[in-house]
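Input structure tokens:
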């Protein structure tokens, strides 16, 4: 049985790549690992505002007070970005989610310099949506 990928694992992998094309491929592959989100959950209420692509997030409370997220997008690279965010936020308590400095963590990956301004804004909108869902659940 292999250990699930962590954010730190992804960061270490990114540091090994010389070419951003390899990082994009990794993001796309990571997006393919997302847990499927039922179409019934892709509603106006779960839609993330501020993204140029279609993006949806749903938070499901779990035992122990953690939140389990489902997410999807119509864009492959954005699905990868969702998967990266889930490495940071998945199955944590609302307090733990609020304490994460996502901008700093994502900055450590160097994404902002290689994403378009609209994708960067969308990424920040996705972080804000996750933190809002956590705040609502608290």
């Amino acid at each position: 049985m292999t250990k699930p990928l962590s954010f730190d694992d992804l960061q270490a992998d990114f540091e090994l790549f010389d070419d951003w094309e390899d990082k994009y491929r990794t993001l796309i592959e990571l997006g393919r690992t997302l847990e499927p989100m039922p179409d019934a959950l892709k509603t106006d209420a779960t839609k993330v505002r501020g993204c140029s692509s279609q993006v949806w997030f749903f938070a499901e409370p779990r035992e122990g007070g953690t939140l389990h997220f489902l997410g999807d997008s119509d864009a492959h690279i954005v699905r990868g970005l969702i998967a990266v965010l889930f490495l940071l936020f998945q199955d944590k308590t609302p307090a733990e989610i609020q304490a994460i400095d996502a901008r700093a963590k994502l900055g450590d990956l160097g994404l902002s310099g290689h994403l378009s301004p609209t994708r960067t804004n969308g990424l920040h909108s996705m972080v804000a949506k996750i933190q809002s869902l956590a705040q609502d659940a608290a």
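The longest strand covers residues 55-61. The chain has a mean pLDDT of 92.
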